[in-house]
Structure formats: C-alpha cells, structure tokens
Amino acid sequence: MSDQEALFEYLLRLGDNALVLGHRLSEWCGHAPALEEDLALSNVALDLIGQTQLWLNLAGEVEGKGRDADKLAYLRDARDFRNILLVEQPNGDFAVTMARQFFFDAWHYLLLRELAGSKDGRIAEIAAKSLKEVTYHLERSRDWVLRLGDGTEESHRRMQAAIDDLWMYTGELFEADEIDRAMLREGLGPDPAALHEPWLGLVKATFEEATLSLPQPGWAQRGGKRGIHSEHLGYILADLQFLQRAYPNATW
Amino acid sequence: MSDQEALFEYLLRLGDNALVLGHRLSEWCGHAPALEEDLALSNVALDLIGQTQLWLNLAGEVEGKGRDADKLAYLRDARDFRNILLVEQPNGDFAVTMARQFFFDAWHYLLLRELAGSKDGRIAEIAAKSLKEVTYHLERSRDWVLRLGDGTEESHRRMQAAIDDLWMYTGELFEADEIDRAMLREGLGPDPAALHEPWLGLVKATFEEATLSLPQPGWAQRGGKRGIHSEHLGYILADLQFLQRAYPNATW
Amino acid sequence: MSPEERSFQERIDADIKIEPKEWMPEAYRKTLIRQISQHAHSEIIGMQPEGNWITRAPTLERKAILLAKVQDEAGHGLYLYCAAETLGVSRDELMEQLNSGKAKYSSIFNYPTLTWADIGAIGWLVDGAAIMNQVPLQRCSYGPYSRAMIRICKEESFHQRQGYDIMMKLARGTPEQQRMAQDALNRWWWPSLMMFGPSDADSVHSAQSMMWKIKINSNDELRQKFVDQTVPQAEYIGLTVPDPDLKWNAERGHYDFGEINWDEFYQVISGNGPCNRQRLRTRVNAYEEGRWVREAADAYAAKKAARAQAKAA
Amino acid sequence: MSPEERSFQERIDADIKIEPKEWMPEAYRKTLIRQISQHAHSEIIGMQPEGNWITRAPTLERKAILLAKVQDEAGHGLYLYCAAETLGVSRDELMEQLNSGKAKYSSIFNYPTLTWADIGAIGWLVDGAAIMNQVPLQRCSYGPYSRAMIRICKEESFHQRQGYDIMMKLARGTPEQQRMAQDALNRWWWPSLMMFGPSDADSVHSAQSMMWKIKINSNDELRQKFVDQTVPQAEYIGLTVPDPDLKWNAERGHYDFGEINWDEFYQVISGNGPCNRQRLRTRVNAYEEGRWVREAADAYAAKKAARAQAKAA
C-alpha cells in the first residue's frame, strides 16, 4: 500500500466515523426526551456532518479519482466503509446514545488534539476546527453520564447497562494497524495506543463521579476500520443512500 | 386512459398488495411468538411473493415495455406503487399483524373469487390459483382474531386496539375509481363496493364470536391505489430495493 | 368597560406593548395562551414530516440544511412555550394538552411527506404561508409574543428560500425530478391555502382578536397575499399551480383562485387527516420515553444543589 | 456393566434403534438431550444471520428461496425440539436454557452477514459443513433423532445447492459481485472449518459418544471430508480458498490445509463473537414479546375445551 493509499484510508476512517455517528444522532431528531435535547443532539449531528464533508472531500482529493464527499458518502457499500464499530451501534435508549457519545467524544477529542499537530497542514487545519466543536461535545456527553449515572435509580441502571453493552466496542479505538503505523511514521497521525491512557483516565474519573462501575477489561470487537462491520450498517446505508442510488444521474 | 393502461394499473394494484404485505410478513421471520408462527407467517409471505410474481409479470406483459416482475418490484419509487394503505402499515405487535391480515384476507378472498371468473383468462387463472392459498390464509387469520379476542384480558385489549387503529384503512378496499370501473365495464374485475357487504358480514360474525366490538363507521383513509401512500412505504422500499439500486447492472 | 379595561385598550391602541406583569383581561390572556401554544405545538409536530427525510436527504449539504431547519423548529417551539409561560401556564401543562389530543396544531402537518420534493414544497409553501401569518404578528400587542415572532420570522424566511431552492433544483433537474416537484406542488398547494383558516365570513373570534392586536390581518387577506406572491414563483421555475380557476384579475390587481375544499379541511382538523394518529403517537412516545431522562436530570440537579448547600453550611 | 447396560449396548452394536420408552443409561439420555437441543438451538439462532437479508434479497425469486430456507430452519428446530421432548425435557425448558445463555448453539451464527454474498456462503459452506456432520447422524442409535436427521438432511442438501448457486451467480457476475463472493468466502471459510469442533486430540466425550453411536465420525475426519469436497467447488467457480497452506496431497489422497486459529474459536464460543449478544437478545426479545400471544392461545384453547365439555354434559 502506498503512502497515498494509506492516507486515503485514514481519511475515510475519520470521515466515516463522523458520517455514521452524525447519521445516528440525526435519527433522534424529533424524538428526544426534551426540546433542549433535540436542539443539542442536532447541534452535535450538524458538527459531525460538517466534519464529514471536510474529511471526505480531502480523502477524495488525496485519492485523485474525482470523488467528492457526497460521492464517497452516498456511493460506497458497507464493506468499503471504514468507521469504527462503536458509532454504528443503534441508538437504543438515551443512556445508550450518551454512553456511545461519551466514549467517542473522549477519544475523538484526544485524537483531534494530536491531529491538530499533524505534519499535513490540511489535516491539522480540519482537526483544529473540529477540536473546538468536539470540546463542547465532550463536555456535554460527560455531563449526561454524570446526570444519568448519579440521577435516579432507573437512570443509573440504564447508564450502567449501556456502558456494559458498549464497552467491547471501545478497544478498537486504540488498536494500531498498518495504516495507523504509516500515519505515525510520516508524522501525520498519532499512535492510537498512546491515546488509551488519557482516555481511560478521563473515563475512570467520570465514572467515579457518576457512581458507575468501570467494566472489566475484556475481548475487544474490531473490524470496522477495515470494513468488517456489524449488521446495523447496511440498514443505515439503505436509507442514507436511497435517493442517490434510485436517481443516479440527478443533482439535488 | 386506454383500457390497456387501466388494466396495467389494476394489475399493479394486485401485485403491489401482495408484494408489500408479503414484505411486511417476512419482517417477522425469526421474531414470531412461537416457532409454529414463524412457519405459518412465512408460509403466507411465500404465497404472497408467489402471487406478486404472477401479477407483476402479467402487468409487465400488458404494459409491453419489457418490464418483468422484478423490474416492477425493484425499480419503481413509492409514488408509483399502487398497493392499498392497509398492507404497508407497520407490523406493530402480533395483534396488529393479525388484524391487518384478517381485514386483508377477508377482502382478498372475496376479490379473488370474483376475479376467478374474469373474462381475461390470464387473470382468472392467477386468481383461481391464489384463491386456494388465500382460503387458508383467511382461515388462519380469522382463527387468530378469535384466539386473541377471546383469549386473555391482555390479548383482548391488544386485538381491540389493533382493530380500532386499522379500521380507517379498510374503507379504501371498497371504493371504486375509474380504473375499477373500467375493469367492471370490460368484465375483467368486480365492483369493489359489491364486496363490502359480504366482507362486513364476515368481519361482524368473527368479531361477535371473538367478543370484539366493531368500530363505528368513520372517515376512510385512501390514496394508496393512486400512489399517495403513508410515510412507511419509503422505508420498505429503501431496504427492498437496495441491491438492485446499488448494483444496477448485475444479475443475481 | 372597567377603567382597567379602558386603559388596557388605550395602551393597545397606542401600540404600547403589554408585558407579563401588567394587568390584562382574562379573555386576552386565555386567547393568547391558546394562540401561542397552538403555534408552539405546530412547530413541534411540524418537526415530524420533515424529520421523515433527514436520514434520506440526498446530499450531505441538504442533510445538514434540513437537520438545521428541523432544529430551528424545536427552537421556535421553545421560544413560544417560554412566551406562553409568561402568561402563567407551564410547558409541561401545555405538552400534556398536546399529548392528550386536547390542544390543536396546524393541520398541514397531518399530511405525509412522500418524496424529497415534499421537503422543498414544505419550505416554500408551508413556511411561506406561515411567514405570511407571522410577519404581521411581529407587531402584535403582547411583548413576549411579538419578540418571539421577530426572531422566528427571520429564520422562517431563510427556510422558505431553502425550500424554494430545493424546488428549483428539482424543477430544472431530470424529468423524474420535475415530475416529483410538480407532484409535490399538486399535493401541498391546497393544504397550504387552508393554513390561513376559514373564510372571513366563517371565522369566529376574529373581531375581538383584531381589536386586541393579536390578530392583525383577516384570513382571506393573508391568503390572497400568499397566492399573489407564490403563483409567480411557481411560474418562474416552470411549475403549474393545480387550480384551473386560477387567473390574474387585472381589475382587482390580484389573482382569482378556485374554491377551497373545506370538507377536507374540517376532516383533517377533526382528526381524520392521513397522519393525525401517527403524529400524536410519535409525540406521546417521545415524551413518555423521555420521562425517566427528565426525572434523572431533575434528581441530579437536586442532589447537586443539596451538596453545594451542605458544603456552604 | 449392569445387565441392562449390556443389553442396551448390544442393541446399539446390532444397529437396532433405541426408542423413547426403552431403558437407556442416564448419561446417554443426558448427552443426547444436550446434543439434540444444541442442534435445535443452532437452527433457531441460525435464522437470524440469514433473516438479516430477507427484506433486502435482490430479486423476488431469491427472496422467496431465502425465506423458505429460513422457514425450513424453524421447521428443523421444531423436529429437533420434538425429538428432545421424547427424552423427557420440554421445549419451554430448552428455550429457557437458550435464553438464559446456559445452552450452547453453533458458534458460526455469531458472525454477521455483511453482504448478499454471505447468504451464498452460508448456504454453500455452513450448510455444507452441517450436512457433513448430519449425514452420518441419520444412522445414529436413537430412533427419533435418526428420523429427524433424515428429514433435515434432505432439506439441507437443497439449501446447500441454493447457496452454491448464489455464489456461482456472483462469481460469474460483475467485478463488484466477484469481489463480494471472494470476500464472503474469505470470511466464512475458517469459521466453517471450526464448525466440526476441536481437533480429535482435544475433543472430550468423543469415545463414549461413538460407542453409543450418537457420534459416528471424528471431528477431524469430517473436517477433512469437507475440505476435500469444497475446494474443487471453489475452484470450479473461480474463487480462491483463503489458505496459503492448502494443497493437494497425492500421497494421502486429501488436501492438506493450514492451522486453524483456535483462539478465535474459543473466544467466539465463550461469548465474544461479533454477534453473540445481539443474537441472544433478539431471541429473548422475540420470546418475551410473544409470551402474551402464547398465553392467549392457551387461554382460548382452555375456554373452547370447557365449552365443548359443558355442551357435552
């Protein structure tokens, strides 16, 4: 794999994470527990859709085959998606959505902080812009972990169940493969493993304050980064891509 | 509209009813309340998929533009679907599925009995074949209306709620439009209104035995027959058509 | 008229805004609560038909625009519930009224969105009609309502342009897209005209509301204005308004248009629209399923406050 | 050995079937219950990965074939639960064991079906491996199990041909379809080999089960047979088996093949496969949500019987 190809794959991962999680959050629109949350969830979704456009447009540029963000988002099938498994998991109840978000935000924040120092100016620029948004996302999802964890008995139970269910999808965030290693070598991106300690520190501190238990370390589900997804992604794409697939020569 | 066009539309209605209801039933597969019901629901779905093929192939033949059943099923968008609203309603719980099925089966049975005497031999043949299957469908869904209506308090409540919810979609079954009138004129199909009395008789008798109340006559939702559907159909098609849309030049 | 009532009406006639803590007639308060909360409910229920296409929007940009728009509707609902709260009714009370089916909301949202073009049509026509209703209300007599309207109108006109832009893209697109656009106009035109409410002749309460300046123009006036504005927009992008009686009346300086099917209007209002049940059920489910979250947030806030107090003591 | 045990073993050695009401050692009964119910559970859980594509099957014919296939699996589950019931355990008990996570099922169903080609691969490879396991069991010593196997094998071989047919269509289709087919083979090959269970050296209970003729061949024997049968089928349609160590060994008259990653096997068995939680949760949900229906059917049957009795009296 050439450096260029590795960079393309790496950018797809960044873009697809934002795309798929933004899509999941957008599913909440109109169904949130309170109007304030409709607003807030939509805000996060909008930021992520914006980031998707930036990453995937850059990916298309790097690929050099004339594909832009829309072509990449709407005309790849599931096996060509590179998002981590965590972000495609179903919304579940509000606790699941917030646990997923907190795990992702904490990692995303740390990752973007590193990417803001990337040798590739284009990456650094997108990361710096996204970092501002994600700082707020993290604040918010962390806050909900506290509220639900230390709220009522029911909310505590639901939040703990959500954490226990999603925990197995967090390992993938910190595993390096040849693409991550190529990025590290070129000074374009960080070593994923190096993000684990600060991430775990943040998670532990938050859980402690929220009276939640940290799950036992266990088997990590992996595969999303190389296109081996869960069965959920296909249904996301069936909706997401319907119009582009059904009217192939149209502009909108 | 020429007679040929009217016939094409009429056949689409017959085919799309079977297609969409068959699809809905197939969603149950693996989720039914008992293995016996997994088998039975799949049986009905399979019959309906078979009927879809017969009606839509004939529709394509009548249209004369080289479209077969698969092309008609997989490459039309929602506005070109002609099924009645009843069949696209979500599965809900088992009571909703069975109430929907009973309303449809009772009508389908009466309709096919008339169509078996159609002047068009092709229609008569498909109707006669389908009638055998649908006789069994009706027996089965009627039986579940009895079991749930006269079962436990909970099942009675659920079945009554299902009936009340779906009732407004039954009026459309008996309303004639210019296409139905063209069919009647040509001796190809019955007057929909003429099916109402026997249908209502069957429903009433069943509800009485099942200790269920007949809803008050009320406003009838209509539109499916001319392509004005509920918001549910689009999602059905996004899944149903995904592969054909995503891989336009493939054979499977 | 009591002296209080007289001085209240004088302030209104002098275009002085009424503020929450001032004296006002009970009927004024009640009418305003009904009007503002109906408007708020319409924003909230209105999220559903458009929300139906967020996951299926055809490009990332369209997806973002649509999501932001539906988000704005939630925001408008919020402003309006706050304005209603200044009149002494809580958001929870109002939501319960909506959920129980007692409160009304704009009937237009009981129609389904069947294609992507419906998203264009809603922005163009439904928001267009809403603006027509709302612009005069920026000058309404009740301060908090007037100020909410000013914020809302600014955003709505933005939405309307976005909706028209969708329609234009479709109307200039492939034959299939053109058909989609025309079809959406066909389905949304008449319901949009109905948004202005019954004919003046049949409209109750209007005179009093106009005297109080919480209704500024008559239904028929606004409807005419909407038709006059919208018909040329349709023509410009090559779409045909589905009204055989529509024609320019040079003498009146307005478009004449056909009879509205008020039967349909009253059917939809009375609960028989294609989506009435679905809309209400979706709302009730969201509200009920969110209950434990709201309770948790309250419990957490209470604990936090108690801890802060304990520390301070 | 007691006289009973001796006569029991003699019947088995003479290939006389054991029938439900006959005496049998407790361990034989227990082992059989475990084996049959595991097999039944596998059929039931196995409905999910394939069920995942029923609503998205690419043609009406493929949809019907797939639905009929998954339906057959429900039917197989039913035969097998009935066979197990002859040994004195009820279907409900067995289902509770499955739902509580106590009972095992074939680990292969804990892998996700990611593309349509996976439906082909499951039919071809997974059913292929299942048949390899099941064909000898048609001759097993317990009558009801043997007879269930005879029915099941007939249908499974049909399924396997259908799966291979899907793969052939894809392998001879567009480049994208070919890629899909090869990718599915890559993902399902090794899990299919693992379906035969651990290496004979590590396999517990085998000797006793073979003596009782409820296991006829060794795991490694069957695995070899499967490889020998499947490799030429892959070659015939131009797909490559993902094993660099695979090669024909003329001396042995068999294919040599690479080391199986038993770590993965034990991870999946112990609950860490990609879909273990999802599969179990889906099953439990279906069971729990169906409870009121089953109760209603029972209540109705009881009422009907009571009425019939009252009438007769």
TrEMBL record, chains A, B:
Q: Which SUPFAM superfamilies match?
A: Ferritin-like
Q: Which keywords has UniProt assigned to this entry?
A: Oxidoreductase
Q: Does the keyword Oxidoreductase apply?
A: yes
Query: What GO molecular-function term can you cite, just one?
Result: phenylacetyl-CoA 1,2-epoxidase activity
Task: Report the domain of life of the source organism.
Answer: Bacteria
Sorted alphabetically, the Gene Ontology cellular component annotations on this record are: cytosol
Biological process annotations from GO: phenylacetate catabolic process
Per the record's keyword annotation, is Oxidoreductase included, yes or no? Answer: yes
Entry EC number(s): 1.14.13.149
Looking at its record, which EC class is this enzyme? oxidoreductase
What Pfam families has UniProt attached to this entry? PaaA_PaaC
PANTHER family, sorted = 1,2-PHENYLACETYL-COA EPOXIDASE, SUBUNIT C (PTHR30458:SF0), PHENYLACETIC ACID DEGRADATION PROTEIN PAA (PTHR30458)
Q: What name goes with this protein? A: Ring-1,2-phenylacetyl-CoA epoxidase subunit PaaC
> What taxonomic ancestry is recorded?
Bacteria, Pseudomonadati, Pseudomonadota, Alphaproteobacteria, Hyphomicrobiales
